[in-house]
Amino acid sequence: MTVTLERPVASAPATRAVKRQNRLAWIARHSIAIALAIMFVTPVVYLVLLSLMTSDQALTSDYWPNTWHPENYLRVFRATPLPHYLLNTVLYAVTATVLTLVSSVPAAYALAKLRFRGRNLMFLVVICVMMLPPQVVTVPLYLMWARYGLTGSLAPLIIPALFGDAFCIFLLRQFLLTIPGEYLDAARVDGCGEWRTLLRVVLPMARPGIAAAGLFQFFYCWNDYYGPLLYTSENEQSWTLSLGLASFRTVHHVDWNLVTAATVLAMAPLIIIFFFAQRSFVQGITLTGFKG
Amino acid sequence: MTGTSLRRGATTFSFVAPALLGIAIFFVYPLISAIYFSFTEFDLLSVPRWVGPENYRRMAEDPFLLQAVRNTLWMVVVFVPVRILGAIGLSMLLVQLKRGAGFFRTIFYLPALVPPVAATIAFVYLLKPGTGPVNHVLEMIGIDGPLWFNSPAWAKPSLVLLGLWAIGDLMIIFLAAVLGVPESLYEAASLDGANAWHRFRSITLPTIRPVILFAAVTGVIYTLQYFDQAAVAGSIAGGQATVGAGISQSFGYPEGSTFTYPLWLYTVGFRYSALGYANALAIVLFVVALAVTVILLRRAKAFSGEES
C-alpha cells in the first residue's frame, strides 16, 4: 500500500509483476494441493475398486473392474464371520467408550478445578501412564487376567474402562481448564455440592470436550489391534474386526476381492462418523497439542 | 480439621478414587511385578525362579534383539523427522491456500482415521511388486519399481510411506500452531522485504518450536511401541499362514527387516514363553520411554498445569 503512494511511477509495472507472480504462486500451490489430494485418496479408491471386481480380476494389475460386483459386500457377510467380528468390535468400542467417559470425567474435573494435596503429582502420573508403551506392562497384566480366567474374552479390554483412561483424563482436563471458574463459584454460592456442580453446570458446558474425548476413545477401541491380539487370539469367538482382517485370508480361504470388501467395511463407519463430527475432532486434536 | 474440610476431602476423593484405583491396578502393580519378574525365569505353566540379573546379561548376546533395536532406531531416526517435516509442509501449504483450504484439510486428514490394520492391507496391495498400481505408474515413466514390502531394503521405507499417509493428526496440531502465529508479525516482515523462506525461518519456526518438541517426543514414544503396521505388513506381504497369535511366525518379514523392539518383546513372551526375559525387555523399554517423557515434561509449561 505505501509503495504505491510513495513511488507512483515505478510502482505501476511492479504491481503488475507482483500480481502475476502472486497468480503464478496461487496456481502452483493449488496444483500441489490437488496432486497431494489425489495421492491421499488413491489408496482408498483403489481398495474400493478392488473390492468390486471378480476374484480373478482382483489378482491382476487392473484398476478398473471389467464387471461390477457390489454383491461382494453381501458375500463377505455370508461367507465369513465378519458379522461376528463386527458385533464384537461394536461391543468393545461402545461399552469401553461409555465406561471410560463416566469414570474419567470426575477425575479430569478434580484435576482441573478442585484444589487438593497431591494434585500435581497425580497429574504427572497420569501423563506418565499416557506415555507408557503398552508393551511394558503386557506380561504382568496378561498373567493377572489369566489368573481370573478372563483371557480369550474381551473383558480384559473392557473392565479397565471402569477406572478411567489416562489419555481421556488428560484431554478432558485440558478442556475443562478453559471453563471460567466464575460459573462454578456461582453454582457453589447457590449451594450446589461439587457433584451437583459437575452434573448440572460443568457437564453441559463441557459437551464439546466430552464429545471429542468420546470420539477418540471410540476410534482407539475400534482400531485396536494389539489388545485383541494379546487377549483374544486364542478364542476366535471374541475376535474383533482388526484381528479378523489381519488373519482373514489364511483362516477362511476367502478371495482378495472379499478381503478388500471387508477392509472397506472396517473403515467406512469411522469416515462417516468423522463427517458428522468434524469440529469436535479438530478441537480435540488441537487440545492434545502443546500450548507452550 | 473441621467437619466441612473433612467432608470436602471426602468429596474430592470420590472424584479421583476410580482413576487412582486404575493407576494402582493397571500401572503401579504391573510395573512393580515386571521389575521383579525381570529377575526371574518362568513360563505360563511354571512358578517364577529367581535368576538375578541373568536376563539383562542375556540381552548382550541376543542377535535378534540387536536386529530389533537397529530396526526401531532406524524408525526413530527416519520415521519421526520425516513425519514432522511432512506435517509442517502440509500445514504451511494449507494456510496459504486461498480456496478450498477446508476441503484439502479434510482430504489430508482422512487417512489418519483408517484403522492401522486396514491401512496396512491397502498399502501392501498398492505397493505389490507385480500387480500394484504404484509400480505400474513407475514403469510408465521408465522406473523399475522396488519390491517394497517384499524387499529387506525397502520394507521400512514402505512403512514410512504408510506413516506419511496417515499424518492427519500431526498435521492438525501443526496447523493450529501455524495459525496461532500473529498475522502482524508477517506483515511487519513483509514490509522489511523478507521473502517467504525468510518469514518461515525467522517467524514461523521459532513460534512453533515447542510444538516441534512435543511432536518429536510423542513421535519417539509412538515409534518405540510401533507394532500393528509392522506385524500386519509382514504377515500380509509374506502371505504366510497366520492365525491369531500365530501371526508372530511372520513377524519381521522379509529377513527380519520389520522386526521392531515391541515385536521381539511379544515374540519372546508369547511365542517362546520366556516370560522373565520378556519382562527384562519391557523394563528396558520403560526406562527409555520414561527418559524421553522427562525431556518433554521439563520443557512443557502446559503440562505442569496450574491454571493462571
TrEMBL record, chain A:
<dbReference type="GO" id="GO:0005886">
    <property type="term" value="C:plasma membrane"/>
</dbReference>
<feature type="transmembrane region" description="Helical">
    <location>
        <begin position="157"/>
        <end position="176"/>
    </location>
</feature>
<dbReference type="InterPro" id="IPR035906">
    <property type="entry name" value="MetI-like_sf"/>
</dbReference>
<dbReference type="GO" id="GO:0055085">
    <property type="term" value="P:transmembrane transport"/>
</dbReference>
<feature type="domain" description="ABC transmembrane type-1">
    <location>
        <begin position="86"/>
        <end position="277"/>
    </location>
</feature>
<comment type="similarity">
    <text>Belongs to the binding-protein-dependent transport system permease family.</text>
</comment>
<keyword id="KW-0812">Transmembrane</keyword>
<keyword id="KW-0472">Membrane</keyword>
<dbReference type="Pfam" id="PF00528">
    <property type="entry name" value="BPD_transp_1"/>
</dbReference>
<feature type="transmembrane region" description="Helical">
    <location>
        <begin position="90"/>
        <end position="111"/>
    </location>
</feature>
<keyword id="KW-0813">Transport</keyword>
<protein>
    <submittedName>
        <fullName>Multiple sugar transport system permease protein</fullName>
    </submittedName>
</protein>
<feature type="transmembrane region" description="Helical">
    <location>
        <begin position="197"/>
        <end position="220"/>
    </location>
</feature>
<feature type="transmembrane region" description="Helical">
    <location>
        <begin position="26"/>
        <end position="49"/>
    </location>
</feature>
<keyword id="KW-0762">Sugar transport</keyword>
<feature type="transmembrane region" description="Helical">
    <location>
        <begin position="256"/>
        <end position="277"/>
    </location>
</feature>
<dbReference type="InterPro" id="IPR000515">
    <property type="entry name" value="MetI-like"/>
</dbReference>
<keyword id="KW-1003">Cell membrane</keyword>
<feature type="transmembrane region" description="Helical">
    <location>
        <begin position="123"/>
        <end position="145"/>
    </location>
</feature>
<keyword id="KW-1133">Transmembrane helix</keyword>
Automatic annotation (TrEMBL), chain B:
<feature type="transmembrane region" description="Helical">
    <location>
        <begin position="274"/>
        <end position="297"/>
    </location>
</feature>
<dbReference type="InterPro" id="IPR035906">
    <property type="entry name" value="MetI-like_sf"/>
</dbReference>
<keyword id="KW-0813">Transport</keyword>
<feature type="transmembrane region" description="Helical">
    <location>
        <begin position="107"/>
        <end position="127"/>
    </location>
</feature>
<keyword id="KW-0812">Transmembrane</keyword>
<dbReference type="InterPro" id="IPR000515">
    <property type="entry name" value="MetI-like"/>
</dbReference>
<keyword id="KW-1133">Transmembrane helix</keyword>
<feature type="transmembrane region" description="Helical">
    <location>
        <begin position="73"/>
        <end position="95"/>
    </location>
</feature>
<dbReference type="InterPro" id="IPR051393">
    <property type="entry name" value="ABC_transporter_permease"/>
</dbReference>
<dbReference type="GO" id="GO:0055085">
    <property type="term" value="P:transmembrane transport"/>
</dbReference>
<feature type="transmembrane region" description="Helical">
    <location>
        <begin position="203"/>
        <end position="224"/>
    </location>
</feature>
<protein>
    <submittedName>
        <fullName>Multiple sugar transport system permease protein</fullName>
    </submittedName>
</protein>
<dbReference type="Pfam" id="PF00528">
    <property type="entry name" value="BPD_transp_1"/>
</dbReference>
<comment type="similarity">
    <text>Belongs to the binding-protein-dependent transport system permease family.</text>
</comment>
<feature type="transmembrane region" description="Helical">
    <location>
        <begin position="159"/>
        <end position="182"/>
    </location>
</feature>
<keyword id="KW-0472">Membrane</keyword>
<keyword id="KW-1003">Cell membrane</keyword>
<feature type="domain" description="ABC transmembrane type-1">
    <location>
        <begin position="69"/>
        <end position="296"/>
    </location>
</feature>
<feature type="transmembrane region" description="Helical">
    <location>
        <begin position="12"/>
        <end position="39"/>
    </location>
</feature>
<keyword id="KW-0762">Sugar transport</keyword>
<dbReference type="GO" id="GO:0005886">
    <property type="term" value="C:plasma membrane"/>
</dbReference>
